[in-house]
Amino acid sequence: MVRKKVCEWKRLIAWSAVAVALMPASVLAQSQTKVTEWPSYAADLAGTRYRPLDQINASNFNDLEIAWRIKTDNFGDRPEYKLEGTPLMVNGVLYATAGSRRAVIALDPATGELLWIHGEHEGKRGGAAPRQLSGRGLAYWSEGKEERILYVTPGFRLICLDAKNGIRVPTFGNNGEVDLKLDDDQEILPDLITGEIGIQSAPVVAKDTVIIGAAFREGMTPRSMRNNKGYVRGFDVRTGKRLWIFHTIPKKGEFGYDTWEKGSAEYTGNTGMWTQLTVDEQLGLVYLPVESPTSDFYGGHRPGNNLFGETLVCVDLKTGERKWHFQLVHHPLWDMDISSAPILADITVDGKPVKAVAQPTKQGFLYVFDRVTGKPIWPIPEKPVEVGNVPGEWYSHTQPIPSKPPAYSRNGVSVDDLIDFTPALHERAKEIASHYHLGPVYAPPTVSKLEGPLGTLTLGTASGGTNWPGGSYDPETHIVYVYACNACVEPIGLVPAPKDISDLNYIAGTAGKEVQILKGPGENAGADAPKPPKKGPGSQYVPMNVDGLPLIKPPYGTITAINLDKGEFVWQIAHGETEDVVRNSPALKGMNIPRTGQETYNIGTLVTKTLVIAGEGHVTTTSDHPRGAMLRAYDKATGKEVGAVYMPAPQTGSPMTYMLNGRQYIVIAVSGGPYSGEYIAYTLSSND
Amino acid sequence: MKIRDLAIAIVGLAVIAASVCALRAQEPPSSERSVWDGVYTEEQAKRGEELYEKQCSPCHGDKLAGRESAPPLTGGAFLSNWNGLTLGDLFERVRKTMPQNAPGKLSRQQNADILAYMLSFNKFPAGKTELYRQAEMLKEIRFEATKPEAKK
What is the DSSP letter of B14? Predict the structure, then answer.
């Protein structure tokens, strides 16, 4: 049976692996130094998003012009409105994933001219994938004259391409591909076509090892406590051969197995690593940010601390053997997946040099460790936290809370966090909040009841805080720059799961509301799909806003600069123009409201020699600019805004930069609402 | 030419203009209509809710709050994405690209009903007439996140 399925997908047709060897001679002739390139997703394997370039600076940022742009509509059979990629630029060519096909495109970085394109038609396997669309990027590797591009398809196949022409490398794996649903120390169920596992992040190549994690559907309302597991694997970049595997849920006999009581390690799934990882090639160490186990908000079927759920794990680059680990959240109940790349930082603490790793998080803590030993740089003591009363749940009575640096975004909700532009608005917000349980970080979810609470109001949970774009780091000044949503409020309530929907005791839901299983895009939406169950009595919905104004008070989104030598903030600013609904609100007429920032969680930052650069996640219309979003630049020393350039749509992928032919470029992915995906390259006019 | 032809043309244009003005005088110009003017009915929103739950909520959620795989259809991100555009723009985005696994499979009526539910959920007022089914007509209804102050 399995063999037959394998044959089916093997027949999938490779799509237009057309080699158009049109690279301009000037491009090929480029001899770039690394500092002018962007050779991996986060600029380097340390996850810094840093390039010490300074042609674009405070004096000229406002003069940026569009050098080229490329819509991604045709890189798939339908447009995409969620373009999240960050391109690479190496050896005079720009590479990116693009479009609903997750095609790979190679462009001339000076003109945007399409050099080649590669796509894979995966049929049902692609259509059933838990993480579809264009993904976040790809990886580059070279040795001598040989250059390779590696990426993972929505259907979870690792593809290796010749970077010169986009054709599969026949000596890698099976004619240029490795089926990631195979050789995974587990049988992916129910079959290779529909078996739930995939990934949307960019692979990482360190030395000669390609490292791939795993992602699943979103885990608030799973159908079962059983699911496939998200192991992490290393592959030989030359051959595609599996070199190692790290079991994010330990197998019997392995360290951590006993943190899954009642044998729950056997059936619990997820616990993948869906975001970017980082590598210290000199130390030969890999840093794995691991996500939540099944399910996000109810852990009654997995009693125990659940290693390595929501754990930063350091493994050996050559063997995958665990060197150290630190579990950020014991027995995860809040969807605090470690959601972004750990940042490697060589810092000086109390006069001593330390090789550190700093982990931004959804919960707004920056956890900083010695990256050789795993020892916290500043104490992270276990502190008592509230214990809930959801039937069948298992609770950790303590959680590790960093003593330094302080939390850089809100991670709990109190009455003091509610909108307070006017006393009347504050009172109405209090009325809304009165339907919920409130508390500081790690206030547990509640069973949702019509008489209240409907759930726990949380901040810094599912959305974050800092989500997948992560932070940036300046290796010269030892400062981390990190964006966080400060108002992405998440009500977490649990309802008994109808047995015909899920075998869990509880899943996420709201009392009186029909129980809904969140699925992959379009899944189960066909004409003959079963009808949803009837609503319960007393259905109600409590909006998370007051007259359209956010329930939580500003700042809605921030960028924080954190000095890693001291564990202290350097500055913190609201990032993003004040929302139209706030600026135009009749209730706030005549009030002088400072810039609020925006209630959005997926903003990535870029650091250059002098600037921190980040776009806005929401569209606004102001007297300064027409309907659109702004790409903003801040003096990285002070946080003062020094320039802004117009974008037609919000930033949805993190910006990157490079130098080519003496000119600096910034490339950014924009999309959303009515605007389909587009990469836009900005540069300075040659006339300036 | 033909001064006489020119004169006829001018007179003709004047007549047309006068007719248009007379028509417009009977109701506010359509370009002044917005989502705050009761552009859908409660009944239509109820039909839309049933469709939404089957076709849209698997990804966008029962609270329209969206998820990593689908954007929210309520709240700040949604309102800012569409503020200043028209219902026609939103209608065409939904009609041509959703549901994601079978874009375009829903009828114009179904899409209009779903759009009515989205308006209802976002607290835009219901009215006495159903939402149009033609994008060109819906383009005459502005999407405004904030209720205009001067509204009657």
Answer: H
Inter-chain residue contact B53 with A514, CB threshold 8 Å = yes
Q: Which residues of B39-74 are buried (b: 16+ CB within 10 A; e: fewer)?
A: bbbeebbebbbebbbbbbbbbbbbbbbbbbbbbbbb
Select from A616, A613, A568, A625 the least CA-distant residue to A596. Answer: A616
pLDDT tens-digit map of A111-141: 999 999 999 999 999 999 999 999 999 999 9
Contact (Cβ atoms closer than 8 angstroms) between residue A465 and residue A484: yes
Provide the CATH topology of domain B33-138.
Answer: Cytochrome Bc1 Complex; Chain D, domain 2 (1.10.760)
Contact A438/A457 with Cβ under 8 angstroms?
A: yes
Q: B97 vs A79: CB contact, 8 Å cut-off?
A: yes
The partner residue sitting opposite A519, judged by closest CB among B53, B58, B93, is B58
Which residues from B are below 8 Å from A674, CB to CB? Answer: 81-82, 85, 89-90, 92-93
DSSP at A602? -
pLDDT of residue B126: 97
Long-range residue pairs from A589-592, CB within 8 A, at least 24 positions apart, any chain: A589/B149, A591/A421
pLDDT for A541:
66
**Contact between chains at B101 and A523 (C-beta distance less than 8 A):** yes
ipTM: 0.80
State residue B59's pLDDT score: 87
pLDDT tens, position by position, A301-337: 999 999 999 999 999 999 999 999 999 999 999 999 9
Look over chain A and give the mean of its residue pLDDT values, rounded to a whole number. Answer: 92
Q: Which chain B positions have a beta carbon within 8 Å of A519's beta carbon?
A: 58-59
- The answer for B 90-149 residues in CB contact with A (under 8 A) is 90, 92-93, 97, 99-103, 123, 145-147, 149
* Residue B67: predicted pLDDT: 78
Residue in chain B nearest A620 by alpha carbon: B80
Token pair in block for residue A667:
């490339």
Query: What is the per-residue pLDDT for A526?
Result: 33
The pLDDT value given to residue B41: 97
Quick one: closest CA in A to B77, which residue?
Answer: A618
At A437-466, the pLDDT tens digits run 999 999 999 999 999 999 999 999 999 999
What residue spans define the domains of chain B? 1-30, 33-138
